[in-house]
Fold this protein.
Amino acid sequence: MMLALAGAAMAPSGATTADTLQAMQAPQKLQATQASQPSQTPGASQTSPTQAPSQSSGQTPTSTQNAQPTATSHGLHFLTVTFDYDFSKTPACSATVKTACVQEFVAYDISAGVRHRTKLFEIPLPPKPVGLVPGITGKSPAKLGFKSGKHLISVVAREPDGKESKHHVCTTWIDIP
């Protein structure tokens, strides 16, 4: 079963590399696609919470869990996210640009709130990260266990020092049966 969902969220305009991290640009126009299959692993376990880097809002989350396949009655799901990013506002990291730059993107489930977010997977930069790059796609490397119901998926830009763009800027809802 494939389910395509689209949500639109725009990044703050005018952000530059000289701006503070609070103004760091977030990805835009998130679309998530899920593929599900019935769970065949009733004894699978979830990893323990790990500490996440500080948020751009200055808040330190209490815990972040890496999503791992878990025992579920509704199945395990691959998750694919597609979004746009404007590297002219916050450039990609390179051999010459090592700070105030985007090292990678990260997909989170922020349904329980940003402080209790669950890291889903990391998304590498596209091959030519210059200017507005539409259609950047990331896919979970493994099936993820989600509880039934609605989940708020977020994609953030992450700097080399672990700082991230705001989690509520680029989001979309998915509905797990």
